[in-house]
Amino acid sequence: MAYTGQRKWYTKELLEICIDDMEVTGEKFTGVQKKGLNFTEFKIPCYVEGVKVGYGIRYFFRCYKCGRRVTKIYTIPNPTKDNITGCRHCLELNYISQQATKTQMDYEAHLLYRYGRMLDPNFKLDTITHTPCPWKPKNMHYKTYERIRHKYEMAQLKAQKKFIAMVGASMQRMEKHFGTYGIDIKNKY
To answer: What is the top-level taxon of the source organism (predicted)?
Structure first.
């Protein structure tokens, strides 16, 4: 795909509407029914499909653009009546990991925040490279804690390596542009 000069949205930037978080009102049904998503001032029509699985029924959204059966549909954070809602395939959304670059630490910050929230629901990420991993919560198995802590530390280590590479590249550019200001660090001591 050619570069267009515009970055794509990724899924966490949009309003995500998940069928699993909603309560389907009325009788249980199989097949497709037209329902509506109620917002404060208006209602967006959507199709909900019920599929019989085992002893129960599982519900899906039916994307009105492509007709796919999906559990999540997306819209912009402040929806209006004229909004386009659809699945991530129709809106050409991608995940934050698909936009990760060699120098940006957005993905690592996302991972650190995610792993930190697994251990502490009130976790705040102060700095990417120096925020310590939260302590083991009560009633969590020690092996589970160690696994999550290891993932946290690996993501933090990767962020530190990216930071060091960024600083090194910046220093080289500054040296090339401004010179070393007549300072010879190697022969100073």
So the answer is: Bacteria
